[in-house]
Structures are given as C-alpha cells and as structure tokens.
C-alpha cells in the first residue's frame, strides 16, 4: 500500500461519517457525475444494508439519487435568490408603492419565510439524516461531525461579520448614520458565538444572520439528544450528552420559546424524513403540485391578514408555527418522492447551473443585507431621500438590478475564500486535532514513564 493510501482512507472515512457524499450541505464536496450510477432507490432494504455496514465499521455508501441531489441544489440557490429579491424590493421600494401594493409585499414576505423553512428542512435532511445513520456505527463520529459543522458555519460567518461591521462603520461615517441596524461591540461577541436572534440582535444591518444561529445550535443539540441510541458510546457518555442537549434546549429557548421549538421541529422533520421507507405521495408531479398550492395558499393568507398600516402579517405565533410545519411536511414529502423515484424527473434538474449557483448561495445569504442597506443609504445621500418617488420606477428597477448583480458577483468572488475553502479548512482542522492528540499522548506516556521510574527508584 502506498504511503498516501492511509490518508485517503481516513479522508473517505470522515466523509462517510458526515453526510451524503454528493451533498454534505453542498459545499466542499465533489458532486457525482454519473447519473446512471446515482439514480437508485434508497428504500428500507438499502437502509438496512447501510446499518449493517456501519455496525461492521465499514464505510457507508450514502450516494444520493442524482435528481434529488440536483433538486436540493436548485432549491438552495433559487430560495436564496428569492430571499435576496424580496429584501431588495422591500429596502428600495417607495413608501407610496408599499402602501398601494401592501398585500403583495406581505405575500412576498410569506414566500421568503416558506423558503427559509425549506432551508431548515434540507439542512435536517442532509445533516440530521447522516447523524441518524451513524448512530449504528461501531466507531465514534461526534468529533468529525462537529469539526465539519463548525467549519461549515464559521468559514462564512466570520467574513460576513467583518463585511457587515466595515460597511456599517463606513456608512455611519459617510452617510451620517444608518438607522437600519444596531452596532455595539458586545454584538460582535454574541454573533461570533452564534447567539444573534437568541440572546441579542444581529450585528449591524445583517438581520438575516439570525437563522444561521438557529441552524448552528440545531447542529449541536440534535446529535446530543439522539446519542442515547448510539451503539458505540458508553452509557455515561450517552446520559451526559442527553442532559447537555436538554439543558441547551432549555437555555436557548428562553427568549423565543415557540420559535425555537417550532424551527427545531421543522429541522427534525427533515432528519426524520431519511428514515421513511416511502413517501406519503408517490407521484413526483402530484407532490410538487400540492406543495405549490400549499405555498401559494399560505402566501395569500398572510397577504390578506395584514392591517392596512402594517407590512407584517397579523397572525398569531401559533398560526404561523402551524403554517411553517405544514409547509415543512409537504416539502419533506416532495423530497422523498424524488429520493425514491426511479424516473428521470424534471429535465431542468439536469442543468449544471444548479450546483454552480448553490456553491456560493450561503455567502449570498450571509452578506446581502448589509450591502443592500449600504447601497440604499448611498443613493439617499447622493440623490436625496425622496429619489425613489421623484425619479420614477425605471431608475429604481435599474438600481435594484445593478445592486443584485453586484451582490451576486461579490458573493461569487468571496466564495473562493469561504465556501470553496471548506474542504481545505476541514483538513487543516483535522491535522491540528491529530497533532494535538499525538502531543497529549506523548505527554501522557512521558508522565507514566517518569512515574514508573520514580516508583522503581523509591
């Protein structure tokens, strides 16, 4: 065996422990190229084979069906683009236009919310599903799992916070303040700890980062709560993990209890979907039609529920939670129909553009808000605060298109330093962890030798 082979085997083992091979959150992993190889059923028989392989300590082949992999790629970038378009429209809209098209704006807000719910379901499906599979493994997986998740989040979050602070500082200095955000040093700490939206606001004008914090803590809490079912870990470890998960749930849910548990349920629906032997509805077209009808119905309901003087839907938190769970269930069912479907699916899913745009969608989501607010403040400063009404819709649409294009280009360029570096940063983290472990083992052996030498001398 060549000297490179052990490293390659170790790398493949880590990959098999941390998610689907074609979509480990879609970043840093090479997508499969053979559609013939990937269009497979992952039914109960296949899942039993995975569990038996895991129990024997073998690498788990969790290659995803091609049409499902492409569908998730498409949903990621289309959902991100939808959120970007909605935020751009709301930030650059003229006040009289918002009042005239109030129901449309509220409906668009609802679509953005539903897209966000879809992100949580996909995250649970990819990450939570991998955790449930590895519960049957004959070796530990938490160390590699946490390294993967921490790198995945922070390799994008840290640059996003730096960009937000920079734009806020410049905006406040040049444009005499930016009322659209809050900025003080403690927020930097809470955002670096992923507590934005939980124990404080988002740093500056980057409000969308609140969802990143919730997803980060779901990454941590979910494996702790299900670890009692893991075969490898000792009973003490499993009890401690369960207790830690429950304590984290209790603490993190204090500020927004219903929202926290609602989103955690949505995320868990995605994870639980990987255990299903078959979808509720087998027809891909029927599942898609029903999901679209549900989404449009919820958007219309939200749009009609807002008072005349408000831009947010006037529905109770419980009704919002119910609508979120309903959309999550039907999205999960659509995902399952594509997972178990044996046909070719939709032709538009075969475009390589889906993976291309999905590979920097997280960066788009993480940095778009501060750029939008900075751009609006700059235009207000140069053209006057009433420019959106004075110069008409043409200039506003042109400026919106230009700014969205700039955001996409900046995100694509930044992704070469963030999302495209996830694999390299993970390898570096594993190398540091390995060197630290070797150093600790050396110190333990040295201490034991000195102790034994002392006993012999005595």
In sequence order, what are the helices and strands, one letter per element?
HHHHHHHHHHHHHHHHHH
Helix content: over 70%
Count of DSSP-assigned helices: 18
Helix and strand content put the structural class at mainly alpha
What overall geometry do the principal axes of the alpha carbons give?
globular
- Beta-sheet strand percentage? under 5%
Count all strands and give the number: 0
Distance between the termini: 47 Å
Please tell me the overall pLDDT: 78
Give Rg in angstroms.
24 Å
Q: Which spans have pLDDT < 50 for at least 5 consecutive residues?
A: 1-61
Main sheet summary: none
Description:
There is one protein chain. This protein is mainly α and 458 residues long. The chain has helices spanning 5-17, 35-38, 44-55, 66-92, 95-100, 102-134, 142-174, 185-192, 209-226, 235-252, 257-273, 284-304, 317-340, 353-358, 361-383, 387-390, 392-415, 422-457. The two termini are 47 Å apart.
Chain-wise SSE layout:
Blueprint: H1 5-17, H2 35-38, H3 44-55, H4 66-92, H5 95-100, H6 102-134, H7 142-174, H8 185-192, H9 209-226, H10 235-252, H11 257-273, H12 284-304, H13 317-340, H14 353-358, H15 361-383, H16 387-390, H17 392-415, H18 422-457
Helix pairs in contact: 4-6, 4-15, 6-9, 6-11, 6-12, 6-13, 7-9, 7-15, 7-18, 9-10, 9-11, 11-13, 12-13, 15-17
